[in-house]
Amino acid sequence: MAEDKEVGTDQEGTARALEDGVVVYWRPGCMFCVHLRFRLRRAKLEHTEVNIRQDPEAAAFVRSVADGNETVPTVTVAGKAMVNPSMKQLREAVAAHAPHLLT
């Protein structure tokens, strides 16, 4: 099942997800984020969710990989960033970089 955590709640879990898991950077009001988060939960793909409005470092990371913009959802799979990926792209990235998450 999805691991829904805000940064700061479980730093160890978030650090582990950054290394070898899936991290979804999102913000409230983003319908693209709502859609992707729903699909991830439905697929039962373990992931960590980080609200960039509550974490300035996460917002800075998103800007660093999205040409200075806070484009969300931004997703990392085993540390590899993808800006606004489709579910197909995300599944392919998980298969390539974090196959241990597939069950």
TrEMBL record:
What PROSITE patterns does this protein map onto? Answer: GLUTAREDOXIN_2
Q: Which SUPFAM superfamilies match?
A: Thioredoxin-like
Q: Which GO terms describe its molecular function?
A: electron transfer activity
Provide the Glutaredoxin domain boundaries: 22-80
Query: Sorted alphabetically, which Pfam families does this protein's record hold?
Result: Glutaredoxin (PF00462)
Example of a GO biological process term: cell redox homeostasis
- Name of the featured protein: NrdH-redoxin
Protein source organism:
Streptomyces armeniacus
